[in-house]
Amino acid sequence: MTKHGREYEKSHPWLTFRLDLRDAPPSFWIALGECQSKCEHISGVPLRPDIARTLHQVYLAKGVWGTTAIEGNTLSEEEVLKHLDGKLNVPPSKEYLKQEIDNIINESNRMLETIHRGESLTLTVPRIKEINRAMLHRLTLEPGVTSGEIRTYSVGVMNYRGAPAKDCEYLFEKLCHWLNGPDFQPQAGLGSMHMAILKAIIGHLYVEWIHGFSDGNGRTGRLIEAQMLLAEGVPSPASHLLSNHYNLTRQEYLRQLRAASESGGKVMPFLAYAVAGFVDGLKEQIAYIRQLHLDVAWVNYIHEVFHHQNSRAAARQKALILDISTKSDPVPMGEMDQVSPRVAKLYAGMHARTCSRDVDLLKEKGLLISQGNGYVANQSLIRQFLPVKAKGQSTMANLPAMRE
């Protein structure tokens, strides 16, 4: 400490540990409410265990890829997903890239296991150190870097200098006390989910500002953010969406971090940027879940349509429409009987017109429609209650007038 207080008060005056949202625009509150609503939509959504696992894997891969890619990890999102399935092979010179991924995955899984055991995930200084230690596990570190220990010297990233080393432990203690205190408890008009999202983003921002470790500060801050979201009931597939957002908008992320400190600690722009990205990620996730539901409902519907039809022709037609349904692009007529190995086997040795007749029958049933230069499954048959509107009109404008 100096004669007049701690050193950081002069060097980092933006570390105020105060949250003033009085200037937040209405659009921010709308977006924050949308985050809560969409998290509730995802929570407890009915999915088969295998499909739920796929959903979790896909979005864990996005988040893990995002938080490591920001730090320079060159593995792609597809490679991270492949690694989650245990199928990624890399040369020895790239093993450290896999280790960085493993560190995030392992710590994320430990968080989930803690929650499933009914234990709390409270943010404390020892916990912050534990996360940093986990982020740097089995990685080759620069001389003088010790994982999980507060640094004893000055560090920086780009043009930003971390808080004075002698103040870092104190700042982490103050941060934990603040985040766990009354400022982030549910308030009038703001439920626990609202406050959890605010707390997670602010916690991440302050860990970045303090920059209390010699290495791994960014990954530590973003995983702390994920922990605080999980701890307050945010669904696990959504807990890493912010990391993915920061990576997809990497330059803006770094600009927002810099601007928040240069403005003297005005966090509203960073909060608005993060919440907007969270909303976008949740919308994408809900669309993905809706498509999973649609796929299951469509398969069930097809089986129902052909339930009492036991002929070889019906078996071909059912296989054909089910396998066309898995294609993202229209299937040309000339490729119809080769759309899958199963279909190719069913049509092997048959006259070319057999497939053409089956297609005509599927069209008559309304299960198949032409699109572009080919055909697609008519899944609109089971898409109910979509907005009814003509092109260029609002939904309300196209509704029939009510009569007295």
Please provide a written account of the structure.
With 404 residues, this protein is an all-alpha fold. The chain contains 15 helices and four strands. The longest helix has 38 residues, at 268-305. It is elongated.
What is the element layout, followed by pairings?
Layout: H1 8-11, H2 26-42, H3 49-69, H4 77-84, H5 95-116, H6 125-135, E1 156-157, E2 160-161, H7 165-179, H8 192-210, H9 217-231, H10 241-248, H11 250-262, H12 268-305, H13 312-324, H14 341-347, H15 352-364, E3 368-371, E4 374-377
Antiparallel strand pairs: 1-2, 3-4
Helix pairs in contact: 2-12, 3-4, 3-5, 3-10, 5-9, 6-9, 7-8, 8-9, 10-11, 10-12, 11-12, 13-14, 13-15
Supply database-style keywords.
two-stranded antiparallel ribbon; single chain; Arc Repressor Mutant, subunit A; 2 domains; 3% strand; mainly alpha
What is the molecular shape?
A: elongated
CATH domain class name of the largest domain? Mainly Alpha
Assembly annotation: single chain
Q: Between the first and last Cα atoms, what is the distance in angstroms?
A: 77 Å
State the share of residues found in helices, binned by percent: 55-70%
Largest sheet: 2 strands, antiparallel
Task: Provide a short characterization of the protein structure.
The chain is mainly alpha-helical and 404 residues long. Helix content is 55%, strand content 3%. The model is unreliable at 394-404 (pLDDT under 50).
